[in-house]
Amino acid sequence: MSKAIFFINPFLGHIFPTVEIVRELIKTGEDIEYYNLNKYKYIIEKTGATFKSMDNFQSMFEWKITSKSENIDFIIDDIFTYYLSKVTYSDDFINFLDEQVKRFCPDYIVYDYFDCYWGKMIAKTNNIPAIALSPTFALCKRMLEENPYEFIKFIWRVPENSILYSWNIEKIKRLIQIITLRIKNIAQFEEFNMSEFGNSEILNIILSSRYFQPHDEYFDNTFRFVGYSFQDRAYNYDFNMNSIKEHEIVIYISLGTIINENESFYNYCFNELGDKNFKVILSAGHKLNEYKFKSIPCNFIVKPIVPQLDVLKRANVFITHGGMNSVTEGLYHNVPLIVMPQQGDGFAVADRVQELELGIKTDIAALEPGALFKIINDILSDEKYKINCKKIGEEIIESGGYMKAVDEILNFKNRL
């Protein structure tokens, strides 16, 4: 039996993919401590791991790049402040982690590939072998060099009307270098590398398939693409799968767990798809009862939450925010996608979905009357989307899933 620590960012999209991995590791006899926020304690303890709270440092995880200004000075200052906050942690936070690591004496640490510089720092200063685990695409310097505009859009999330997009490639690269050097000097953190954004180790587990990964040829064998890592959520669903008839065309709509409070979009869907020849299943989030819907069309089933994996087995089209977990689950079940990205990796995922003809991306804020109905019919009438989704769905399954991730971790441990 070995001991391990999991340092994972406190967001459901990052925690959920680790659940089955942790559970299976514990079945093999591993002793795991998992650090996160109290609101996720129940999910983590269900795996059998020992939950450790970081609630005293919750503010560490609340900073975001927020500037919507077109002023270049404001944008650069916001970016700089954001990344500096990620690598200049309070002495209390670092001392807390350091004390916990010295107390537990783990044989290895698994930390979040994205924005978890503190995990990398603690592993290095304590000379503990580490594994980086990514719930989404891997990134590398070469990707940035070839298309820095994607970097400032998807990673920095700079507004598309910014003057940055008028800069030439070399000027943007130089800006990235300057910000990186300033952060390294101020934080005295030489390993910080904004151009990779993630934190590469000698083992990097990527919870996506190699085929779905943009520029997969840029990543060597230290990157292991394991496909999927999901499970049925342990919720009490108020949902009857028998309400879906065998002959019905099913449209499933879910905007995820973070930015799903969109009453205007839901009303748009009612107007757009109401009384059409579809069964529409809408997962509207836990604030559903606060919405003032005038009426819900008879062909809709609207719930705060639904058993997504079961619904996807019956779905013909999946309308999603583009989170990697949801998209992987859709592709696993061979369901063509309509992706409406709203934050983070959703924009990169949406681009990849469209590039591989797995579905169509669209802007949720720019939908005109008739637009969504047309997109759905375009997908349903073109067999290529279903064929392509089936191809990548098979590849995701063949990648091995969470059991492959477990094997990689155990093999890594055994080589220590």
Describe the secondary structure blueprint for this structure.
Blueprint: E1 3-7, H1 12-27, E2 31-36, H2 41-45, E3 50-53, H3 72-87, H4 91-104, E4 108-112, H5 117-125, E5 130-134, H6 141-146, H7 148-154, H8 169-187, E6 204-206, E7 223-225, E8 250-254, H9 263-273, E9 279-283, E10 300-303, H10 308-312, E11 317-320, H11 324-332, E12 337-339, H12 346-355, E13 359-361, H13 371-381, H14 383-398, H15 401-414
Parallel strand pairs: 1-2, 1-4, 2-3, 4-5, 5-6, 6-7, 8-9, 8-11, 9-10, 11-12, 12-13
In short:
The protein is an alpha/beta fold.
Structural notes for this entry:
The protein is α/β, with parallel strands linked by helices. 40% of the residues lie in helices and 13% in strands. The protein contains 15 helices and 13 strands. The strands form two sheets. Strands 3-2-1-4-5-6-7 form a seven-stranded parallel sheet, sandwiched between helices. Strands 10-9-8-11-12-13 form a six-stranded parallel sheet, sandwiched between helices. Helix 1 packs across helix 15, helix 3 packs across helix 8 and helix 11 packs across helix 14. The longest helix is centred in the middle third of the chain and has 19 residues. It is globular, with a radius of gyration of 22 Å.
